[in-house]
Amino acid sequence: MSEIKLIKPSAEYAAKIAEYRDEFITYNDYFTVCDVNRIPGAERILEFDRAIDWIENCRLCEHAETNPYEDCPIATQYIAVRKSDDRIVGMIHLRHELSNEELRNFDGNIGYSVRPSERLKGYAKELLRLCLEKAREYRLEKVLLCCVDTNLGSRKAILANGGEYECTNYGEESRLHVELYWILI
To answer: I need a surface site. Which of 117, 175, 179, 183 has the fewest CB within 10 A?
Structure first.
């Protein structure tokens, strides 16, 4: 049985979501290959001063009719909550399609993070496993995952969940090498 559960962000978790965001800021530990000012798996969280506004934005992004971003596909945001103490240990963002080159070459269908104070405990592997179950519910047949070549923990989580290496791309802006992996669902 899993130690964590994936749930959609809600007002009930607003304070804990703010704590999660603030921990990344405190550790100065946020970047993605395409945008050095983004926490992986917590799509656009740094654009919002209030967690409650980010939660509403996540809800809007779930449907084509309400998605406020032309350049982003329909997506579902989840928070990973540890069952024993209700603490958010990670976040994961499931994009239902790869609608542009940036997603196909650097971001993939799924982005995720584990809060700095909870790393090296196996949460990334479990977080990804649970999200693959969600992807199956959305009838996705395969998903693309990307990780920086130096992120050994993420690579390990991807491989443990059946990731098949495709290639490595170089991000001109970030100057990082990104490995692409496919997982069949």
So the answer is: 175
